[in-house]
Amino acid sequence: MALVNEHFLKLPGSYLFSDIAKKVNAFKVTHPGKNLIRLGIGDVTRPLPPVCIEAMHRAVDEMANAKTFRGYGPEQGYDFLIEAIIKHDFTSRGISLSPSEIFISDGAKSDTGNIGELLRWDNSMGITDPVYPVYVDSNIMCGRSGTLDENGKWSNVTYLPCTEENNFIPELPKHRVDLIYLCYPNNPTGTTLTHEQLKKWVDYALSNDTLIIFDAAYEAFIQEPNVPHSIYEIRGAKKVAIEIRSFSKTAGFTGVRCGYTVIPKEVTAASLDGQRIPLNPLWNRRQCTKFNGTSYITQRGAEAIYTPDGQKQIKETINYYMENARIMREGLKKAGFSVYGGINAPYIWLKVPEGMTSWKFFDQLLYEVNIVSTPGVGFGPSGEGYLRLTAFGQREECQEAMQRLQNWI
C-alpha cells in the first residue's frame, strides 16, 4: 500500500485562515442581516492599475495572432520583466544583480513554502515569533520542525519572540542555527528593522554560516528613509540571503498571481562531505522540473508596473492603503487600544484587553461589533494576546469599523 507522509499529520487541523473562514460563515448563517466588515485576511480591494490592465489586454490580443502567440515560456521568467525588476528594484538602490539570479513565480507564498526543498530535512531553523504560518507549516511538512510540545512550540525551531517588551525587535539566536526566516516589513506585526538592526542579522549569518530567507513582500509600503527595502542593501548579504518578493499587495495581484525570488550566485549550502554547493542552479533545476512558468499575460501586466505611469498608479494605491492604516491607528488609539505597526506596513497589531485570549477577543469583535480580525496566536505562541487588522479594506469600511469600536468601548 502507499504510505502517507506522516509529517502532514503533525499539522494543525486546518490552516489559520480556513478556521477564520469557518467562523465567519457560521456567523453569517446565524446572523444573515448583519453587515460584516472584513479586516482580517490581507486581501486587497483596489482594482489593478490601469497600465496593467492595458498591458494584459495587449498580451491577450497577441495570443489571438499566430505570429505573436506564446506557448510555454521560460520557467525562470521572461527577460523583459526580469530586466525591469533589476533596473527599478535593485540597480536604483545600488544593488548589482544578474538576470539569472531572478526567478519569476506565481507569488511569494509558493516560493516561501517551496524554498526549503533545497535543504536537508535536519537543518535547524529560527523564526521570529509571531510569524507568517507558511514558514513553519512548510517545514513541518518535510519533517524539519521536529515535534510539537504542550506550549505550541516545535522542538527543532528556535523561536525569537517579538513582543511589546522588546519593541517587536527580535534578539539574535543565542546559539547557531542553519536557517532563519525574516519578514520585513513584518507580517503580522507591521513593524520594521532599521539598516543597523538588519545588519546585525547579516553579520550573524556571515559569522555562523547561516542561510537567511528574507520575505520582502511589503517593501513597497515603507515610508521611513532608514528602513531597508532589500536585504542586499547590507554589505555581504548576497553571500547568505535569499530574498522573496510579491506583486500581490503592491499592485493588487492577489488574484493574478506574480512574484519573484532572488537567489544570488554567491549563496551556498554545504554537502555532508563539506563541499559548498551554490543554491542558484539547484533552484533553477527545481523550477524547470516542477514549474511551467508564470503566464505571459501576467508577466506583461507586471512589467507595466515599472513604467512611469505604473509607478505613479501603484503609489496611489499604496498611499490609499497607508491612509487606511493611519485612520485605523488613530481610531484604535482613540478607543483606548495599544496598537503597533501601520507606519511602514499595511498591518495593525492590536493588543487585546487584559485577561482575554486572541480567539476570545476575535469572537467578541465578530459577534458584538461585526468586525473580522485575525487572532494573533494563529501566527505563533508570542502572538497570543494580540489581533492583526489589515488596512486593505475600502476607506468607508475602515472608517465605519473605527466608529463602531469607539461606540462599543
Structural write-up:
The chain has 409 residues and is α/β, with parallel strands linked by helices. A 7-stranded mixed sheet has the order 2-8-7-6-5-3-4, sandwiched between helices. It has a 4-stranded antiparallel sheet with strand order 11-12-15-14. A hairpin with a 5-residue loop joins strand 11 and strand 12.
Summarize the structure.
Strand 5, helix 6 and strand 6 form a beta-alpha-beta unit. This protein has a 7-stranded mixed β-sheet with strand order 2-8-7-6-5-3-4, sandwiched between helices. Strands 11-12-15-14 form a 4-stranded antiparallel β-sheet. It contains 12 helices and 15 strands.
SSE sequence, one letter per element: HEHHEHEHEEHEEHEEEHHHEEHEEEH
Strand content: 5-15%
Q: Major beta sheet, specifics?
A: 7 strands, mixed
Secondary structure: helix percent = 25-40%
Number of helices: 12
Can you lay out the helices and strands and say which pair or pack?
Elements (H helix, E strand, L loop, with lengths): L15 H15 L6 E2 L11 H14 L15 H12 L11 E4 L2 H7 L10 E5 L3 H9 L15 E5 L17 E5 L11 H14 L2 E5 L25 E6 L1 H4 L7 E4 L5 E3 L5 E3 H12 L5 H9 L3 H27 L4 E3 L5 E5 L6 H12 L1 E2 L1 E2 L10 E5 L4 H14 L1
Parallel strand pairs: 1-13, 3-4, 3-5, 5-6, 6-7
Antiparallel strand pairs: 2-8, 7-8, 9-10, 11-12, 12-15, 14-15
